[in-house]
Predict the 3D structure of the following.
Amino acid sequence: MPQAPSDSPAIPAPSAPPTPSASSTPSASSMLSASSTPSAATSAPAGTRPRRNPYARLFAVPGAVAFTLGNLVARLPMGMFSVSAVTMIAGSRGSYALAGAVTATGLAATAVVAPWTARLVDRHGQARVAVPATVFAVLGSLSLLLCVRYGAPDWTLFASYAATATVPNTGGMSRARWAHLLKGDARAVHTANSFEQAADELCFMLGPVLAAFLCGTFFPEAGTLAGAVLLLTGVLLFTAQRATEPPPQGRTGAATKARSPLRARGMPALLVVFLATGAVFGAMEVVTIAYADERGHKAAAGAVLALQAAGSCAAGLVFGAVRPRGPLHRRRVLCAAAMAALAGLPLLAAAATGSLVVLAGALLCAGMATAPAMVTGMTLVQRLTPEGQANEGMTLAVTGLLGGIACGAATGGWTVEHLGAATGYAVPLAAACCALLLTVVGGDATRVDAVSSGRA
């Protein structure tokens, strides 16, 4: 894997620290590279100390703070929409089955539409595509809200929620910006991917809590309405930062000639791993809710699941602060092995103790392995994705995760119903073991592709 260049010509020590240019992307990348190499440290002026915090160096890149804040605002609703829709529909129509079917339809539509939207983003630019796609998705959310509010036929709920599938992959667009700004600096990209994974966990931890609070405190449609406003505001703020946006590939015609990332060597095998990883998340959520409900503490399920996300968030930040060592494919296998090993803790806690408190601690520990596994997976997706198709490649990975979440939730629910909630924790354990096995089996394909492309 690439490392920060250490054999570049020596740069004479300046009399004062240089001021980085805010309008030059290469200077931002070179600034990060120089700050992480021995030559830069030895050529620094006497009496100054180089910044050692990798996150401080990361956000020293001009424009990074601005686009990150906008993206966080846009990403928070991703954890709100599903909970808000279920609460709103079930409260109005009195049917969790209908609410679940509507959200499942939206998930299926997203799996179909999201890669197409991402391809347009790569081809025509983030601002040009993401804004109208977000407006269309927001209109779908508002349509759902009005249909529920005024008792429209059930089919209108399905149609409205399916329209929200055009929402762009905000996390993928942010990762694409980091990959563009930090091109050639593997350690900085590793830190950026770790931060983005921690941000994902934070948003999916806070989003459901915020949605439940709004729907319960004000009115059932409040969560959907607030999510729509936050999404549109965040995307507008994010896309307004044009200086850090990757150049659209459609201007050069490269995007029209490139193959789909799905056809890249090693990518199908990697997407199957993401499918299995998603099954871990989906099954863990359903089984935990059922386990808490079985013990009369259904209201505590959200807090227990939040601990799992908190463990993953903390682990992601720590993982990003550590210098990556060894080949990427080997780190990927080690992270998958850790995820499989720790996925057994909830099963052990549930079967041996029957205590929700002990289970919460087990989920906190189990969550610490998911972020490193996701970070190495997303880094590998970036390596295997053809030039100029970063958004599409990462959206395919997210689509694999969504499919896995749906499969894991369905399998976990069936297991809970027929074998009990404690036994249900065998499902995420089995999915994590499958992810490890698929990572090992598919490792040769991804390693060969990375080596042949000069990016191993």
